Amino acid sequence: MKPLLVGETNPYYREGAPPDKFALYPLPKHASGHNLATKVMGLSMVDYLRLFDRANLCKRTWSIREAREKARNITDVENAERRALVVLCGQKVCNAFGFAYEPLTAVCRPDQVLLILPHPSGLCRFWNEEGAYERARAFLRNQGVFAAPAPGGTHAYFPFGQPIGQPGGDE
After folding, report:
1. What is the reported pTM?
2. How far is Cα 41 from Cα 89, in angstroms, rounded to an integer?
3. How far is CA 90 from CA 73, 74, 162, in A?
4. Which site from 11, 41, 112, 117 is most exposed, i.e. has the minimal number of CB atoms within 10 Å?
5. Environment class of residue 2 by beta-carbon count within 10 Å: exposed (0-12), middle (13-18) or buried (19+)?
């Protein structure tokens, strides 16, 4: 399975629409999904949509109760759709999962790794720091986020650095 990118809400959500179809979507160009795809990850919109599944914890407005329920589902070991690799975008999302907000860190479990990123909106001050996008991209790359899905749709996840045969990996 593809890594799962988790955001807060979708201000463009309309009742009756599939809840996660446009989660962290890379359009419009000022949206968080666009910033995550192009500025943080350095990907084209096509590659971003191909490499990742996306979900928001809440539909249109933030509710910590709704967010915690969806976070529990994402980490539930009984969930058949559970992902080995999950990227948490922002402090609210991180808190809904019950983790301390420490950007560019990983929470490692026996069969799941959750990566913590600052929220990709234009409002987060982290991104104003010099080299912030490059540091975040290197963190994601080193955690195997950009590894292509393996045949059969499973994600070739490499928790401790680059996959073999990729730049920076062991040959």
Report:
1. 0.85
2. 13
3. 18, 16, 24
4. 11
5. middle
3-state SS class at 167: coil
Phi-psi region of 152 (alpha: psi -120 to 50; beta: other; left: phi over 0): left
CA distance 91 to 113: 17
Tokens at 26, concatenated = 């890379």
DSSP code for 132: H
Per-residue pLDDT of the chain (171 residues; tens, 9 = 90+): 899 999 999 888 888 888 788 999 999 999 999 999 999 999 999 999 999 999 999 998 999 999 999 999 999 999 888 999 999 999 999 999 999 999 999 999 988 999 999 999 989 999 999 999 999 999 999 999 987 554 444 444 444 333 333 333 333
Contacts of 145 (CB under 8 A, 6+ apart): 3, 41, 85, 87, 115
The 3-state DSSP class for residue 115 equals strand
Nearest to 71 by CA among 93, 39, 102, 38: 93
Q: Is the dihedral of CA 127, 120, 33, 116 positive or negative?
A: positive
